C-alpha cells in the first residue's frame, strides 16, 4: 500500500537548466531553474517557471527572449550557485567562471562552457500561483561537437546532464541507458 505524502512537488527528476537573460542594464545573468521541460513539438517549445521576484523575470519580459543552458555534471557547483545568488547583487557569470556569449538569434546570452544550449523567443506567459510559466519557441539548439552521436544529435551519455530532486534538494548525474524509446515496449504488444 502506498503512503500519502500530501500536496507537494515530489515529481522527479526535474532538469537542471540555467536560464540566460540580459537585464535592463544589459548585464548577462543566469537563473537556475528546475521547473521546466519540453511543452510542444510543433512549434518546438520549452517552458521554464520563475517567481516574479526573481531578477530574471523582468529581464525575460523586457527582452522577450531567454536561453536554456544545460550544464554537464562538471558544472554542478556553478548551477547551484546560479540558483542561490541574485543577479541583482552579483555577476553570476564571473563568480562561476563562465563565459557569456551573445546570441545572434535572440536577445539573451548563453554559456560558452555548457555542452548544450537552447535559444528561445518568448511565445507567451501563464500565471500559475506564485510562478510565471515562460513558454519559449526554440529558435536554435547549439551543441558542442564532442557531445554529438553518430547521427549528429546530442548524446546524453556525452552531455552528462544533471537532474534535481525537489524532495531532498539533491543533484544527481544521469544514469545509464536502459532501453530504446518507441521500441522496448513492443515486447508487450500482442
Structural notes for this entry:
Residues 12-157 form the Flavin reductase like domain. Keywords: Flavoprotein. This is Flavin reductase family protein. One of its GO terms (molecular function) is oxidoreductase activity, acting on the CH-NH group of donors, NAD or NADP as acceptor. Belongs to the flavoredoxin family. By secondary structure, this protein is mainly β. The chain has a single domain, classed as Electron Transport, Fmn-binding Protein, Chain A (Pnp Oxidase, Chain A), CATH 2.30.110. The chain contains four helices and twelve strands; from the N terminus they run E-E-E-E-E-H-E-H-H-E-E-E-E-H-E-E. The strands form three sheets. A seven-stranded antiparallel β-sheet has the order 3-2-6-9-10-5-4. A hairpin with a 6-residue loop joins strand 7 (100-102) and strand 8 (109-111). The longest helix is centred in the first third of the chain and has 9 residues, at 55-63. The two termini are 30 Å apart. 32% of the residues are buried. The model has no long low-confidence stretch (mean pLDDT 96).
